Amino acid sequence: MEKVNQTFFLSHGSPTLSIDDTLEARQFFKSWTHKVLPQKPNSILVISAHWDTKFPSVNTVLRNNTIHDFYGFPDPMYKLKYEAPGAIELGKRVKELLMKEGGMKRVDEDTKRGLDHGAWVPLMLMYPDADIPICQLSVQSNQNGSYHYNMGKALASLKDEGVLIIGSGSATHNLRKLDFNITNGSSVPWALEFDHWLKDSLLQGRCGDVNEWEERASNAKVAHPWPEHLYPLHVAMGAAGEDAKAEQIHTSWQLGTLSYSSYSFTSSP
Q: How far apart are alpha carbons 62 and 76 in whole angstroms?
């Protein structure tokens, strides 16, 4: 069984990523197996910002259905399907690790839920054959960054079992501040400032600062009025291990304020 020595945080941006070929980020996701991770994982664990529960939950299904959890978008987007196999054993393993290693008292199993757009939109571009078993894990927006970092730490051993751990969220996420007049891929100052703070903190290995981002970052509350789109980053960071090395693997912008900045975390040998 080939180990996976990296975890990833992916900014999944707008659901239009699923159909809009003009988006730079779309080309990045489509080049995944050529440029980012040629190794095919045994299974994939996705922590998506779009599944937010009071207690950690995993989906344990035979086959993942496609959840179109977005509103008012072009019709073709609602016809897209990504029906990858479920990963029931992985789900049960995640539950076991969170309880044993992470000390969590309760982890729920959802036997009906498929993949939300935070999971299937990027994965459809990355692994279009939909042949790798996928399990989703929820975030808890009532908790903080350190909680999610520790959640990741509890799951670190999954990499040795050939599991690809992906946090899917957004480096910046304030939908009320989208600027539909900006169509040239540029960004507004507050968004760029937060994006740069995040990049510098990650590349300099300042995990503690990233865990306490609400206190440490400039424009934290403008960049993330709600925290659920950043928490998948903390899980990916924690799962990579103590001395992991971060690298920015993509950055681009949509509508001035939506960052597609994405990162890999390579575990130290």
A: 26
- Which whole number is the average pLDDT over 12-36? 95
Q: Which residues contact 222 (CB under 8 A, 6 or more apart)?
A: 174, 177, 190, 191, 194
CB 110 within 8 A of CB 59: yes
Give all strands of the β-sheet with 43-52 in edge-to-edge order. Answer: 108-110, 57-59, 134-139, 43-52, 163-169, 6-11, 262-266, 245-250
The 10s digit of each residue's pLDDT in 15-24 is 999 999 999 9
CB of 136 closer than 8 Å to CB of 85? no
pLDDT digits (tens, 9 = 90+) for 247-256: 999 999 999 8
Q: What is the pTM of this model?
A: 0.97
Q: In whole numbers, what is the pLDDT of the chain averaged over residues?
A: 95
CA–CA dist 103, 153 (Å, integer): 11
Integer Cα distance of 209 and 262 in angstroms: 18
C-alpha–C-alpha distance, residues 11 and 248, integer Å: 11
